[in-house]
Amino acid sequence: MSQSMEVAVTLDRQTPRRAFRPHDIAFRAFATACGLLAIVAAISLLAFLMHAGLEALSEIGLFSMLTGSRWRPEAGIFGGLPLIFGTVASAVGAMLLGALPAVLAAIWVMGLGPRGLLPAFRRAMELASALPSVVYGWLALEHLVPRMGAFAAFIYPGRAEMSGEGLLTSAVLLAVMIAPTVALLSIDALSKIPAGLREASAALGASAWQTAFRVVVPHAKAGLIAAIFFGFARAAGETMAVQMVIGGARTLPETAFSPTTTISTQIVMDLQNARPGALESDALYAMALVLLMLSSSVVLATRLLRQRGSS
Amino acid sequence: MKSLRLRARRRIVDNAALLALGAIALSLMGGYLLTFGHLLLRGGHHLVAFSKTPVPLSGSQGETGMRVALAAVYGASLSWALLRLGRPLIDRSIASGWLERSRTRLLIIGASALLAALFLRDHLPPFLISLPRETATGGGIGPQLFNSVYLAVLSTAVTFPLGLGAAIYLVYFARSRALVRSARVALDALASLPSIVYGLFGFLVFVVKMRAGYSLWAGACILALLNLPLVVGIIEENLRALPRDLTEASLSLGATTTQTILRVALPSSWPGIVSAMVLAIGRVFAESAPLIMTAGTTIARNKAYSLDPMRGGETLAVHLWYLGSAGIAKDRAELSAGTAATLIVLVLLTNLLASRVARAGQSGGKRLAKMTR
Q1: Most B CBs within 10 Å, among A90, A131, A136, to test the B interface
Q2: Nearest partner of A291 among B193, B309, B207, judged by Cα
């Protein structure tokens, strides 16, 4: 009698009354709050940035901010062109010098090279992409800058300002930094291709080379381009490593070896000196907005490409 | 005849191009491996230069605790490595059955950690436990090492509940389509931001608006925000990859959604959760720009090892940047090499841990195997 009572009681306790249990509600509320917090954080981040940046833009003027070629915050001159040019030029250079070889290497490893190499290649790339950017920056400072200096002196003899720190140096450094990530993303894109495609191509008598470049690469084109664009966005946003080697001259570079600056570098350098709320500091937020536009337009283009590739 | 010759010529061209591609790939791979080797050889001796005489204490708060912890880590990793390397020997020896048991192995590792903490703590490599010096030679990176690890702990304390909660929300609770979509757009937007933007945001909110000055707490919050998209993405993917039978069986047995999530879904997707956290920690070690703007670039001598999260502090990555761009000590090249080697060892360890956990997840994990049997 008492036993059956107990069974009944436990059963009763376990009947689902889901909506009314306090810990259920608390848990659900917690999870929802976390989800909402991500939205709030993203919105407030953009709002803060917009607020400060647009204030400076309205004061300085969008046109003069984008096309002025001198950046002298201490004198009230805010021409952002050298910063924008430095960012874009070094990122494009990195794309050519780093992302393209990385994609080619991924294509080779994923079908042309020996099979056993893929895990080792992937592991090396994973490690290299996990290396902190300041470590790359320091390595470049120690090994790349003197060599670039010698090279520049060879090409342009008798110009003292070419110490080796400059646009090309930072492009090479960024190339080294983005290549592993681009290679990993390309491997991912290439491995999503159905094996049947490769096999069909081989069965029709195509050589490995023909299979790779006439079947596999066209099929994975969207993914490969997305990988390269991702590398571009990363190169454009990189800060500390570039700051160490680009030289910090706030003018447009005369040659590829001349020192110049980038948006993110200038933000880090000027923020320490600028009084918060002053125009000098707000101008930095405006430049950050420009950087944001640059990288998010690239990311958006990537997403469009990927959607078209998948459909 | 002609077409044959043409084909032969084309094959030669093909092969040459193939060789060129192979050369690119191999040199890429070899270059990075060489870089790693170079970095470890160049600065690694700082990590094993144990001193014969006890290193004097500098008198900053919490220094002994830091030494004990570091010595314990040295002892534990040494015995782990010995057990690991000696596996073929152990397998052949009489004690193999005994040593194979994970409990005895843990006991050995724990004992050597304790021994090292007792006897090694004043003989650790001086580079790792002494304070940095601005102008004189022979400075160390003790506070920076401590700050890196402490910042990882602080930022994980924020990222873990937040990321887990957001992922659970997206997978199990999200009812309104619009909210899910906007959460996903928000996370995507956060993921695509350059890290300097996070730094600016953190500077504006914590340093300017809250007038808190540079603090580790601000840095931890900003890094947590930076890691949020990564962590939520990985955890969400793992939760969605769980076999449906598992959660449905739990629900059909009368468990509530909360019980199902806490007792079934999370325990069986632990490898994904842990590897997400480890990856996030790796990014904490590597990141520098947002930290310069939120946690600052200074070390307070008396509070170098203090657990107070409201103090500012420099991490290893920031220190490496500082040495390279603003350092004036004569031996800064040597100091940079040592700092870089320490940073790499930390990153390598987290990377190793992440891949091990991921492998445990690939094989299903013991727990999942037990549950689905």
Answers
A1: A131
A2: B193
d(C-alpha A286, C-alpha A51), whole Å: 9
- Tell if the CB–CB gap between B317 and A179 is shorter than 8 Å: no
Residue B96 pLDDT greater than 70, yes or no: no
- Neighbouring CB atoms inside 10 A of A156's CB total 14
For residue A2, the model assigns a pLDDT of 43
Length of chain B counted residue by residue: 373
> Any idea what the Cα angle at residue A259 is, between residues A83 and A232, rounded to 5°?
50
Contact B169 A32 (CB under 8 A): yes
Query: Looking at beta carbons, which residues of chain A come within 8 Å of B21?
Result: 104-105, 107-108, 112
The pLDDT score that the predictor gives to residue A161 is 67
* Cα separation, A267 vs B372, whole angstroms: 54
CB contact under 8 A, B170 and A128: no
CA distance B68 to B70: 6
Helix (H) or strand (E) holding B352: helix B332-362
Task: Locate the DSSP E strands across chain B.
Answer: none
CA distances from A159 to A88, A106, A152, B227 (A): 25, 40, 9, 45
Average pLDDT over residues B170-197: 84
Closest-CA residue to A70 (of A294, A60, B200, A288): A60
pLDDT in tens, chain A (311 residues): 344 444 433 344 444 444 457 788 888 889 888 888 888 988 998 898 888 888 888 888 888 888 888 888 888 888 888 899 999 999 999 999 999 999 999 999 988 888 888 999 998 998 898 899 999 999 999 889 888 888 888 888 777 667 888 899 999 999 999 999 999 999 999 988 888 888 898 899 888 888 888 888 888 888 899 899 989 988 998 888 898 888 888 888 888 888 888 999 889 888 877 777 788 888 888 899 999 888 888 888 887 877 776 54
Average confidence score pLDDT of chain B: 84
Q: Give residue for tokens 């010529």.
A: B9
Integer Cα distance of B305 and B143 in angstroms: 6
What are B279-303's pLDDT values in tens digits?
Answer: 899 999 999 999 998 888 888 777 7
Q: Which of A36, A103, A108, A186 to mutate to test the interface with B (most CBs of B within 10 A)?
A: A108
Burial class (CB in 10 A: 0-12, 13-18, 19+), A308: exposed
Region of residue B314 (left: phi > 0; alpha: psi -120 to 50; beta: else): beta
Residue A276 has which token pair? Answer: 């918060």
Q: Residue for token digits 């040659």?
A: A255
CB A99, CB A230: distance < 8 Å: no
Q: State how far the alpha carbon of A261 is from the alpha carbons of A89, A136, B35, in Å.
A: 11, 18, 27
Angle at B63 between CA B59 and CA B64, to 5 degrees: 110
**Angle (nearest 5°) at CA B8 between B4 and B9:** 115
**DSSP character string of B249-285:** HHHHTT--HHHIIIIIIHHHTHHHHHHHHHHHHHHHH
End-to-end Cα, chain B, rounded Å: 66
Q: Do the chains contact at A183 and B28, CB–CB below 8 Å?
A: yes
Instruction: Name the token pair of A34.
Output: 């976390």
Task: Decide if B288 contacts B297 (C-beta within 8 A).
Answer: no
Distance CA B139, CA B329 (A): 9
Say if residues B303 and B311 touch (Cβ distance below 8 Å).
Answer: yes
Mean per-residue pLDDT for B131-156? 87
Looking at residue B125, what is its pLDDT? 85
Element (H, E) at B336: helix B332-362
By C-alpha distance, which of B224, B115, B72 is closest to B162? B224
